[in-house]
Amino acid sequence: MKRIIATAVAMLLCAALLLTGCQSAGETADFPVSVEGVVLETQPQRIVSLSPVLSAALMELNGLDVLAGVSDYCHDKVPETGEIPAMGSAQTPDVQAIIDSGADTVLSVSAMSAGNISALEAAGIRLIILPQPTSLAELAVLYTQVGTVLKGASTGTERGDNLSQNLTDRLAFLSGKIGEDNTASYLYLPDLSGAAATGDTLESEVLGKLGLQNTASELSGYALSDEQLAGMDPDWLICDDGITAEALAASRYASLPAVQEGRVLYVDGAPFELCSSRMADTALAVAEGLFGTELFTVSGAADPS
After folding, report:
1. Assuming Cys at both sites, which of 1, 160, 235, 295 could form a disulfide with 147, CB separation 3.0 to 4.6 Å?
2. Is 114 within a domain?
3. Domain shared by 120 and 204, yes or no
4. pTM for the complete prediction?
């Protein structure tokens, strides 16, 4: 009987060792990991985001619970961060507030001064600067990087990949419903400052996935001169919903046939500004506004959001 008990105990010890080994393997598969040249030995516990774009990405990747602070611009642009303390910006960070928050990691899309970097390093805080995306491919990379910061090389990468794939799938769904027979040209205005979505912008790429033709596709840098505008006649003028009809009527765009004939569509442009996967929501609003809602609910098919 003693031999049987001893054998059973030995088997339980072996099983425990195996389980411990599997758990350790799972942990080491995620950390340490390197992101933009910064090595994360362990999973960050408290993060400060000094960019609305990064705060939006953290939110979409279910990372708001580790946010110890955000930039001064985040509360307005990412309302979900409203209860999280504001700590300046990359250019003018409140370094002492960041240190006092207990943060171990700061994320930014902009460089910081050498003095501020030194102060953070002296407090044992890592600074990771992530490039702001200007294309869907770069957005996919950003999601992978932010996911990796949150959850490590394996778990985090999978989470980021899933988010970018969801955006890809939703845009593909809309494209398939619209088909080649439905098309239109457009000009997209984020505001009335003189800027327009040119061919090198996320707005142009996303709306291009719907088969729409950007009349500013040959231009770049959101720049649109009066002379260039005079030669345009888009089927639709698509505007950020922060633009009012009254302001549009008093702007340089008032002479466009699309404005005079009421072919103006107002949509939530915040996802474009935030480089957010919610751009698919804006794309759906554009598609429904141009082609009707029925096209996207036929046969019970629904947007795979």
Report:
1. 160
2. yes
3. no
4. 0.89
**In the structure encoding, which two tokens stand for residue 237, read together?**
């003028």
Report the distance separating Cα 9 and Cα 15, nearest Å.
10
283 part of a folded domain: yes
What secondary structure letter does DSSP report for 186? E
- The Cα–Cα gap between 61 and 302 comes to 23
173 within domain boundaries: no
Q: How many domains does the chain have?
A: 2
Structural domain contains residue 234: yes
Residue that the structure tokens 């957010």 belong to? 276
Give strand pairing partners of 185. 213
| pLDDT of the residue at 304 | 73
pLDDT confidence bin for 301, thresholds 50/70/90: low
Q: What is the reported pLDDT for 2?
A: 40
Asked whether the CA dihedral 88, 93, 96, 101 is positive or negative, the reply is positive
Q: Which two tokens stand for residue 15?
A: 């099983």
CATH code, domain carrying 244:
3.40.50.1980
Phi, psi of 41 (to 5 degrees): -70, -35
Number of helices (H) and strands (E) in the chain: give both, helices first: 13, 10
Domain finish residue from 131, 164, 196 = 131
pLDDT (average), residues 239-244: 98
Same domain flag for 222 and 290? yes
Q: Where are the beta strands (DSSP E) in the chain?
A: 33-35, 38-40, 47-49, 67-70, 105-108, 126-129, 185-189, 213-214, 236-240, 264-267
Q: Quote the pLDDT of residue 303.
A: 72
Residues 127 and 187 both lie in one domain:
no
Strands (DSSP E) found in 199-263: 213-214, 236-240
Quick: pLDDT tens for 138-197: 999 999 999 999 999 999 999 999 999 999 999 999 999 999 889 999 999 999 999 999
Q: Which domain, by its residues, includes 51?
A: 44-131
Cβ–Cβ under 8 Å, residues 46 and 87: no
